[in-house]
Design brief:
The complex is a heterodimer.
Chain A (H helix, E strand, L loop, with lengths): L1 H14 L11 H25 L7 H17 L4 H24 L5 H20 L4 E2 L3 H8 L7 H19 L1 H11 L1 H6 L4 H27 L1 E2 L7 H11 L11 H20 L4 H25 L4
Antiparallel strand pairs in A: 1-2
Helix pairs in contact in A: 1-12, 2-7, 2-8, 2-10, 2-11, 2-12, 3-4, 3-5, 3-10, 4-5, 4-10, 6-10, 7-8, 11-12, 11-13
Chain B lengths: L2 H6 L11 E10 L2 E11 L4 E6 L5 H9 L6 E6 L2 E3 L4 H6 L2 E4 L11 H4 L7 E2 L2 E2 L1 H15 L15 H15 L3 E5 L7 H16 L3 E5 L3 H7 L2 E6 L2 E7 L5 H9 L5
Parallel strand pairs in B: 3-10, 3-11, 6-9, 9-10
Antiparallel strand pairs in B: 1-2, 1-4, 4-5, 7-8, 11-12
The chains are: A mainly alpha, B alpha/beta.
């Protein structure tokens, strides 16, 4: 994946110097990094969920819902901390519902998170009634726009969350249990791993990461729009799978997923740089995802699973 | 002959105290009665075999002892003291280790982790990988099996090697009782022989061993006592020296003994 990424950068730099460095000092590349950082906030938690053998489609709805609830409360005059707490609390509820539904109630994760996606997206539309709230206090805007040490906030969030996620997955008992749960859920349970708890915590972490993402988006846009993100869930899951996470669980790493997401980000960006019609971008991304998942399936066929 | 009269023929009660004793244990899955008032004991330094046809309740009984299932009724005694086994952790706390029929290994993880899944050693809040690898090497060395490396993924091992990993894990954590569900089912002739020898060694070390097997040849080679299950009920328990293959087969199938 690293090699593919570097090759892609080289090829794109030949095709368009603006891709990497030309213009205002790596301007395009910085745009890509910030866009990737925004996605990485959710990616950090999603990788944990994928490794544990689950996935979550409700991310978009939760991001939009959190932004809209927090935004509406801010505009109504509530103080920043309370408005954020309310938004995060709503996201937490969605995460708990997802986790409990797929474990205790044994509901299908695809249908469950599709359902909670609709519900949370519906709440975002319902609250706004089509009218976005905007013009937030400076303290809130700083959450998205402050630049400690000259580095913009989304990059801080992404780096901190990614580092924590790497540490949790690779070093902690919880991380080992996530891998065991994803690799053989029943086997792990028989050995005393609290598999349901692992899954519920992972769903809650994805919801909390989505909440942070929604708040940062609202702060950066200085507006809470019910369709701030659309397709973030698929972008993050696809990036992770391209980067080596298995949808069957048990396999994958943060670094790999990040490289996969980087590839997806570059691909989108490149199709703009190369003047490919935005109407065709989706098609290209879809083809790439299909190739990646196909390659994964082929590799699996050669190595019999345990 | 009815079940009741067969129970009357069971050998005289042991004078020694059983390490683990189950009294009138029942387990239901909805309306299905998987175990019915099972009385069952395991003694230290003995190999206790559990035999029966498919669906007789062998695996259910094993999982009840290992804490994977909870008994709906009945009592458990460990060293004569009443205990409850409501989870795999309870079973582990009593020093019981189980090797399941499907081995319950995580194919996407390496040998070292598989020997410790659910009980990873930690140091300063983090998994102590070094200790895991060190102890894993010791366990594998003790078993005298050919496993390329403790870093190898379990999905890349052969059936026999996987079996060895699962047994290694149980030997490592089973301080008092080892429960082996079909330990030779996936093995070739030579590997089976090694496995049986290993089980005898463990018995001679004083461990109590419960072995579930379809293979009566293997059962008769190593078991000290044989308990037959049919339809979730104990048909009877026999000392190996006081029974024959014919009798056990008849007890398994329910055919008239006369």
């Amino acid at each position: 994946m690293l090699v593919i990424n570097l090759a892609f950068i080289l090829i794109m730099t030949r095709l368009s110097p603006y891709f990497l460095y030309a213009g205002n000092g790596f301007a395009n590349f910085r745009v890509m990094l910030v866009s990737m950082a925004m996605d990485s906030i959710v990616l950090a938690a999603m990788v944990m969920l994928l490794v544990g053998g689950m996935f979550d489609l409700s991310v978009d709805g939760v991001v939009n819902m959190t932004g809209v609830i927090t935004g509406a409360l801010l505009v109504s005059g509530l103080n920043v901390a309370l408005a954020i707490a309310a938004g995060v609390a709503c996201a937490l509820v969605v995460g708990l519902i997802n986790g409990i539904a797929v474990t205790r109630l044994r509901m299908n994760p695809l249908m469950t998170t599709l359902g909670t996606w609709w519900v949370s997206q519906g709440i975002a539309f319902g609250i706004t009634q089509g009218i976005s709230s905007h013009t937030f206090p400076q303290a809130f805007i700083d959450i998205g726009y402050a630049q400690p040490l000259g580095i913009t906030m989304p990059i801080w969030y992404a780096v901190i969350l990614l580092v924590i996620a790497v540490w949790v997955l690779a070093k902690t008992k919880f991380g080992y249990h996530v891998y065991a749960t994803g690799g053989n859920r029943e086997g792990a349970r028989l050995h005393g791993v609290k598999v349901d708890r692992v899954t519920i915590i992972s769903f809650v972490l994805v919801a909390l990461a989505s909440a942070l993402s929604g708040i940062v988006y609202a702060a950066r846009l200085n507006a809470a729009v019910p369709q701030t993100v659309n397709g973030l869930n698929l972008r993050v899951i696809s990036g992770a799978v391209i980067g080596g996470c298995s949808l069957n669980g048990g396999e994958g790493s943060i670094i790999g997923a990040l490289l996969g997401l980087f590839f997806m980000t570059m691909l989108t960006n490149a199709s703009i740089m190369l003047n490919i019609s935005p109407y065709w971008q989706m098609c290209i991304l879809g083809v790439v995802v299909l190739i990646a998942v196909g390659a994964d399936a082929l590799a699996k066929r050669r190595i019999p699973a345990a | 002959m009815s079940t009741e009269t067969m129970l009357d023929q069971a050998p005289a009660r042991e004078l020694r105290r059983p390490l683990l004793e189950l009294r009138k244990v029942s387990k239901f899955f909805g309306a299905l009665r998987a175990l019915h008032e099972v009385d069952f004991s395991i003694y230290p330094g003995e190999i206790q075999a559990l035999v029966g046809d498919n669906g007789a309740g062998k695996s259910t009984l094993v999982k009840t002892i290992s804490g994977a299932h909870q008994a709906d009724r009945g009592e458990f005694f460990f060293n004569g003291k009443p205990v409850s086994i409501a989870s795999p952790d309870d079973s582990f706390a009593l020093g019981i280790a189980t090797v399941y029929q499907d081995l319950a290994l995580v194919g996407t993880r390496d040998v070292a982790h598989n020997l410790f899944v659910g009980r990873e050693p930690t140091r300063w809040g983090m998994v102590d990988r070094r200790r895991m690898v060190r102890e894993a090497r010791q366990v594998i060395g003790l078993l005298n099996v050919d496993i390329p490396s403790v870093d190898a993924l379990v999905s890349q091992l052969s059936g026999g090697q996987r079996q060895a990993v699962a047994i290694g894990r149980a030997v490592h954590e089973g301080r008092s009782i080892l429960v082996l569900d079909e330990p030779t089912a996936a093995l070739g002739v030579r590997e089976s022989h090694q496995m049986l020898t290993l089980i005898e060694t463990l018995r001679d070390q004083g461990k109590a061993i419960l072995i579930v097997s379809h293979n009566l040849l293997h059962v008769f080679r190593i078991a000290d006592r044989i308990t037959v299950l049919r339809g979730g009920q104990v048909v009877g328990t026999r000392r190996k020296s006081q029974t024959s293959g014919d009798e056990i087969v008849k007890m398994i199938t329910g055919a008239d003994m006369l």
